[in-house]
Amino acid sequence: MRNARVLMTAALTSACIGLSGLSTAVANDNYSDGVVRIGVLTDMSGIYTDLSGRAAVEAVRMAVEDFGGEVNGVPIEVVHADHRNRPDVGASRAREWYDNDGVDMINDLSNSGVANAVAAVAKERRRHAIVNSSSTIGITNDYCSPYATHYTYDAYSLAQGTGKSIVDDGGDSWFFLTVDFAFGHGLERQVSEVVREAGGRVVGAARHPLDTTDFSSYALQAQASGAEIIGIASTGADAINAINALAEFGVTPNQRPAALLLWFDDVHALGLETAQGLLLTNAFYWDANDETREFSKRFYERTGRMPNMAHAGNYSSTMHYLKSVEAAGTDDPDAVSEKMRELEINDFFAQGGYIRPNGRMVHDQYMWQVKSPDASEYDYDYMELVTTIPGEEAFQPLEKSTCYLLED
Amino acid sequence: MDFFGIPIQAVLGQLMLGIVNGSFYAVLSLGLAIIFGVLKIVNFAHGAFFMLGAFVAFMSGRYLGIDYWAALFIAPLVVACIGIVFEYLFLRRLYGLDPIYGLLLTFSLVLVLEGGFRVAFGSSGQPYPTPELLRGVFNLGFMVLPYYRAFVIVAALSVCLATWFLIERTRLGASLRAATERPDLTQAFGINVPLLVTLTYGAGVGLAAFAGVLAAPIFHVNPSMGSNLVIIIFAVVVIGGLGSIIGAIVTGLALGIVEGFTRVFYSEFSSTIVFLVMVAVLLLRPAGLFGRTEA
Q: Which CATH architecture is the domain A156-282+368-377+380-389 placed in?
């Protein structure tokens, strides 16, 4: 009697589980935990929060909404977290997301130190990471894997853009003001290479900590170096403060500043009066064409700010990931990785873009010049196109990459 | 001419900048020392009040059209009032408790203020123009010194000396010092000690705000502009001797110069040198250079 009751309970329970699972079982079989989950790991509270931050989360959400909120009938979820510009915090959050929270792909990844650390975790855990906001070429070299994609730009493309054009323009002695961590060092190295290859020389460098407010002493060192070009290997508030200090101490205009990674937001913060004439290599500008304007207008309505290249990259890369999941019919990382490398990227952000075996997304880069206040006709009318750098020239040639996937 | 292999121009230039930075350190650490001396509170929010001063100047300029010179007076007053309200509502409940409570409360204020301004104004910072009168540079031969930086030295040191005079040489200062040493006796003489304490906090954070306005045209007005500075300021106060007024002023200036020198020889080390000096001073003179060992 007792056995019969146990058996009946077991049968009823399994029937219930079976019934409730039936409707989704067909669609979900190929998807881990029945959800495609995207994590946006970004700087929500520190020095880079204006460059990615909350707006990066919104960009990913926009992509998910535009995609329809589900892929092959499976819902898509977006979560986000703050890495506080600390590689250890970023890496442990990534582990937690991949291991416990069912996150399939991590996006944004501002701060090169954090990006390298998370790429390493992605490789170990066999899950996707897409780097949009940081420049470290480690992602497509030592930290490469089938799961790490470097999407928007990198230190190499910056060097090929701003760096090379200034060298070509006759700026052949350089002094660097470099932010003292992976990003600054990487950028300085890439640009130095370009300078030397073109026959120029690097006369010295001064290293400053992240989030430095007072650049006066570095300005004096730059002045004393006598270099023609002061390469600013930092970004965001650091680059803004450096440019201001160079102007304040009369270093410019005798010596020219070259901001190696300047964002749209930095131009906005500096104001056209100070920023006019600066060159910047950006993969995206809101006012480039009708498609970019359409996206940017929608983005502005949601966030109250114009998108920069990382925001646009976050949107485009999320779309590409979801399209790859859809095409693969599963969120299995290996199958998705294959599709991501197979499908071409054609949207407002990139035309004919494709992902190389080492994870580098190849697409055109653009060099812009900041307009003078008189030339700016409407709000956010800040830049004009100087030249387009074809994707094949903009990024590190595959034979130079140290990625292990390229060995055979 | 060289100085240990470094061109003398570079050395003199960095020395000059050291004095400019030292002036900031002096004003900030002075406020911190006064607050610690009287309230026995470790005011971790000092950097946030510095930032608040810069933001009040920036906002009053943008929204009310108040210029720099007026802001130099108005912003410290506004921030002092905010400080007084904070002291009256929260801080005074912690007197007599373990100093860690005061530290936690003021630190939480830092997080709230910085977070709030970051949400409202972003992290890239806002430009604040240098006043018309002070644009341009002196050519000193070994370096160009912007007029404005020279003005900072003069303004900061004048305020420091005035504060020192007020505390050490006036009747109000005497009451204040009495209230620090023996609050109960001072009260018995008919002096309103709690009021004195509240006003001291207001004056201390007002000094921080004054430094903030001075800093606004140099640095971008930025929510995190105070958080890096406050750590150094604490080191300055510890080296000078906790609660010592003259110690804070002299040490602030001296450490600015030491830092400037370090930048010439080994720039990466410049953010660490202050703490090495602190360790050395604590080992040799635990009460600080100008501090008194309590009997």
A: 3-Layer(aba) Sandwich (3.40)
